[in-house]
Design a protein that fits this description.
Length: 216
């Protein structure tokens, strides 16, 4: 399977290591599948040809010998269908993995993003003083549910899957806040998943172009 993934040539430091092509790189590294990265810039993002591939001009976009698609969760699930390293082959096991991928994206990430946007993009604005406690409480509720599920489990199911990959990339967005300190089991889970060699290769693959293309 010859795969191509799009990624940004450069992003500001606060976003480095968090752009969502990391999810696809990590999945491909776990699966042991070769891939090519196509670096894009704002001009390419806005081009008609790229919008035909990724209607919103975002990354990642993905193609291989069989499909052309976008949205990181959908791409990761596509890769998981091709590799037992990311999902078991039995229908019940695959269904559980799909469930956890969607839970990361739909049940946890929106609440993470709400808090991150308040703290990063609207820091110091008066209206956030009233909104932040509500956003933090909603996020804490979701994280408490996740922590209760994990309990003494090493992973979300009986082994590492694409569900853990996706959940880890969501939890990583909280590293620079105080949130994970209140949920040490989730922070330990995040670190356990990030210690996988495939994650290290994926992260370095994303960061290298940023070091090489610093605006002059």
């Amino acid at each position: 399977m010859n795969s191509q993934v799009t990624a940004f040539r450069w992003v500001p430091p606060f976003a480095q290591g968090y752009v969502r092509d990391l999810r696809v790189r990590w999945a491909l590294e776990e699966a042991g599948l070769p891939y090519e990265v196509r670096l894009i810039d704002p001009e390419v993002q806005a081009s008609e040809s790229y919008r035909e591939w990724q209607p919103f001009g975002q990354v990642p976009a993905y193609r291989d010998d069989e499909v052309e698609m976008f949205e990181s969760g959908a791409i990761v699930l596509h890769i998981a269908d091709k590799s037992e390293a990311l999902a078991p082959r039995d229908p019940a096991g695959r269904a559980r993995v799909t469930t956890w991928v969607l839970a990361a994206l739909n049940s946890v990430e929106p609440h993470v993003q709400n808090l991150v946007h308040l703290d990063v993009f609207h820091a110091g604005e008066a209206w956030t003083l009233e909104r932040r406690p509500q956003a933090a409480a909603m996020l804490d509720g979701r994280l408490a549910g996740l922590a209760a599920w994990l309990d003494d489990r090493e992973y979300l199911e009986d082994r590492f899957t694409a569900g853990d990959l996706m959940m880890t990339t969501v939890l990583r967005e909280l590293v620079n806040s105080d949130v994970l300190r209140r949920f040490p089991s989730l922070d330990a889970y995040r670190q356990r998943c990030e210690s996988r060699p495939a994650f290290g290769r994926a992260l370095e693959g994303q960061l290298r172009p940023f070091r090489e293309n610093i605006p002059g």
